[in-house]
């Protein structure tokens, strides 16, 4: 796959034209206030992994609507004092999987909280969290569930779960609540940006090849799923474009980035047809925080930097979590 998007020098200057709703902040304040009317009820049940290097807890907490959301808390074995924590969000279609799939951050000496994604987990890693909320007609997948009303849209629930996951991680006595970072790739990177814009005291965020950014450009630039789900929905439901893009404007990573203040590490891949590089740079270039950086992988598709980017994170995050 050759480079198909803007040249790199243009990407570094690109500013999206996506319109932000006037009531964006009010919408999210009301959403999170409603979620917090439910007791967080974070429960941590010891889970036997037959691994000697970690202690694992099977987590349940109340997310959007008070709905139970699952997760894992993974600690270096024998932890007795509070540790800085990494809260991780999962890519599209995947769930929390199994604990032995998530050993990187505990090996680096951090508490590691992995959030399950409601309604997902049947494509790739397994999930354990149902989404009890229905929606109107939708294209198969998650992108168009409730897409003609921001109050009903699927990602309103997911992003709220993401914020509550940070609160759940902070509720454990072996997590240092003052040193928590959010990380994720693809969909997980988009959730990370949302949480970074809604939780204003994170120590850092790391968003790799993030999905859910610059919807107007993404949905017209690439024909690859999941963005293609939105286009196919509008293809079937002619005349829905204004309603669809209005809804998506409440969930655009660009607008959350404009509110993020924690130190931020991004990555983009210039051959990425799933999350085109211009949409990733749209969020990076809009980021409000003074400390932001971008790793670029010139000849990679949506796999991005993979283990190389993890290596960058392993060098970068300790400055903010252990400093």
Automatic annotation (TrEMBL):
**Signal sequence coordinates:** none
Record's InterPro entries?
AB_hydrolase_fold (IPR029058), AXE1_dom (IPR008391), CE7 (IPR039069)
* Domain (Acetyl xylan esterase) ranges: 1-318
Database matches in Pfam families: AXE1
Name the UniProt record assigns to this protein: Acetylxylan esterase
């Amino acid at each position: 796959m050759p480079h198909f998007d803007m040249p790199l020098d243009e990407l570094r200057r690109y500013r999206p034209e996506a319109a932000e709703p006037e009531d964006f902040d009010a919408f999210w304040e009301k959403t999170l206030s409603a979620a917090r009317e439910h007791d967080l009820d974070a429960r941590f049940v010891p889970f036997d992994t037959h691994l000697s290097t970690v202690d694992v807890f099977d987590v349940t907490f109340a997310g959007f609507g008070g709905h139970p959301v699952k997760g894992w808390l993974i600690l270096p074995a024998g932890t007795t004092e509070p540790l800085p924590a990494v809260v991780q969000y999962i890519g599209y279609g995947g769930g929390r999987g199994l604990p032995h799939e998530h050993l990187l951050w505990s090996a680096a000496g951090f508490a590691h909280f992995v959030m399950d994604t409601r309604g997902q987990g049947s494509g790739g890693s397994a999930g354990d969290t149902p989404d009890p909320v229905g929606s109107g007609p939708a294209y198969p997948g998650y992108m168009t569930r409730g897409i003609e009303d921001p109050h009903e849209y699927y990602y309103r629930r997911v992003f709220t779960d993401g914020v509550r996951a940070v609160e759940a991680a902070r509720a454990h006595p072996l997590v240092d609540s003052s040193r928590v970072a959010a990380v994720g790739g693809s969909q997980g990177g988009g959730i990370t940006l949302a949480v970074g814009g809604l939780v204003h005291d994170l120590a850092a965020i790391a968003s790799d090849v993030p999905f859910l950014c610059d919807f107007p450009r993404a949905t017209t630039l690439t024909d690859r799923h999941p963005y293609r789900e939105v286009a196919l929905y509008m293809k079937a439901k002619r005349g829905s474009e204004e309603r669809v893009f209005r809804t998506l404007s409440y969930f655009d990573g660009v607008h959350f980035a404009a509110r993020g203040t924690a130190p931020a590490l991004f990555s983009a891949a210039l051959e990425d047809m799933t999350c085109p590089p211009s949409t990733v740079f749209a969020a990076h270039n809009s980021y409000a925080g003074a400390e932001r950086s971008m790793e670029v992988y010139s000849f990679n598709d949506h796999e991005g930097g993979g283990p190389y980017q993890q290596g960058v994170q392993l060098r970068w995050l300790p400055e903010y979590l252990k400093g």
